[in-house]
Amino acid sequence: MSALGRLIKQGRASHRAVAFFAVASLIGFPAGALRVLCLGNACQVRAKASSDTPFCSLPDEVRRLIESGSYEGRSPDIMAVTGSTLIAGGDTFRRDASAPLWPSTTLPDGERVPVVFAGRGVVQRASVPSGTGLDDVSETIAAIIDLRRPHPDVRSGESVDGLASGEIPRLVLEVVWKGVGSDGLERHPEEWPQLKQLMRDGAATMDAVVGSLPLDPAATLATIGTGGLPSRHGITGTLLRTDQTSYDLTIAEEKAGGEVVRAWTKRAPDSVIATLGDHLDEKRHQKPVVGLVGTDPIDRGLIGGSWYPDGDRDSVAILDRSASVEEQIGAARALLSREDFGRDEITDLAGVVLSGRVTKLDSALSRLIRTAKDVSGGSVAISVTATGESEPGGSATVADARVVRGRIERAIRTSEPAIEAVVPGGLYLDQQALDRLKLSDDVVLRELLRIRSRSGDQLIADAFPAIAITFGRYC
């Protein structure tokens, strides 16, 4: 049953939803048939959504990034973009400097990130072009270690030309700074001397891009790990909906699936495409050592490990999210020293996802690289990048995402919560609760658009059902 059919059957289709699906169905009608029948103005004009259509009102670049960050069936039911007042975080994030900002029409380019390649197998001072995507990182590493990954058409990334020297390293050390972007680094250039030195010693750019919105670290880490954007790998955020959802299921059947879960946990759907670590293990017959140190299960996106069911067990250390940078680096150095990383000619892969203040991350970087060189006899290729800006510069006003839930729930005054989860850039709705309450998604959407900031401005510049993204090409 279609989405519209299900809503009509349950008596939950608003006029807005019916109109939207009606337009969508006309757009989906074969163009040749429209021309033959000369329906409407099909013979004279090409169908195009108006600028006030939900999602189409956004700037082209914002739309492109949101499209790249969404995956049908897993993304939030309602997506939102802020205006002059920003929103940070969601249910799984503390309101601090690491909470991701929601997509915005006014935010400076927070998706700019540094990308550095250095060490064995890297041509020193090779050009890394501006606009290199984080989906290019794993493809470039694959070129450095001479790994031919299968099915390149499923990934969006490409290797950086002229960067691989042909010398194969024993170890690849892949470091990611969580919640960091180029804009923030450039505002405080004195805080990262070690990263600057690594950039001079290798090949680097400050103008790489994440390639998608929102800047949820779970999505970004999976992009780095797989070489595909969220629209390809399906890990759209720290929370995502399981794949069992179907419009043909009864409410009782939906209780067994379609829930909102944390990425990379037992019940979470896997990445749709394999990571570099998955391919390294599989193509080289499980001989490489693949490992990870992080502070959250979502950090698994950097190395994967579950795509091939008969693969070996990777060496993974997930610390508490409150772990200090010293504790994180200590665990990473211990892992490198304890396991057999870099001990033979078969290339190994170690991923380290770090959270904390830039000064401490930078100070720890040299120690981590020194340990990687020690265990590999100096035969290590190094990649350093980040997940994107989580703290705006200047005098931007930032609201806590909890405000969104509170305002909506007070406005609709239901006997049970209609919102299952608030995430950066959207809302997951409790569809079973809405069924029982006989409410449409549009009620929540309408109240979301009514929220005002403290200055009295409309907090949300645009909000739309996730399915609107599917028809974004007609904007």
State the main characteristics.
16% strand, seven-stranded mixed β-sheet, four-stranded antiparallel β-sheet, 475 residues, disordered N terminus, Alkaline Phosphatase, subunit A, 17 helices
**In CATH, what is the class of the largest domain?**
Alpha Beta
CATH topology-level fold name of the largest domain: Alkaline Phosphatase, subunit A
Number of helices: 17
Q: Alpha-carbon distance between the termini?
A: 26 Å
- In what order do the strands lie side by side in the largest sheet? 5-3-11-4-10-8-9
The averaged pLDDT comes out at 87
Q: What structural class do you assign from the helix and strand content? A: alpha/beta
- At the fourth level of CATH, the homologous superfamily of the largest domain is Alkaline Phosphatase, subunit A
Helical amount: 25-40%
C-alpha-based Rg, rounded: 23 Å
Task: State the gist of this model.
The chain is an alpha/beta fold. It contains 17 helices and 15 strands. Helices cover 32% and strands 16% of the residues.
Structure description:
The chain has about 475 residues and is of the alpha/beta class. It has two domains: about 5-105 and about 395-475, no CATH class; about 110-235 and about 270-385, Alkaline Phosphatase, subunit A, CATH 3.40.720.10. The protein contains 17 helices and 15 strands. The protein has a seven-stranded mixed beta sheet with strand order 5-3-11-4-10-8-9, sandwiched between helices. The chain has a four-stranded antiparallel beta sheet with strand order 13-14-1-15. A two-stranded parallel sheet has the order 2-12. The model is unreliable at about 1-20 and about 20-45 (pLDDT under 50).
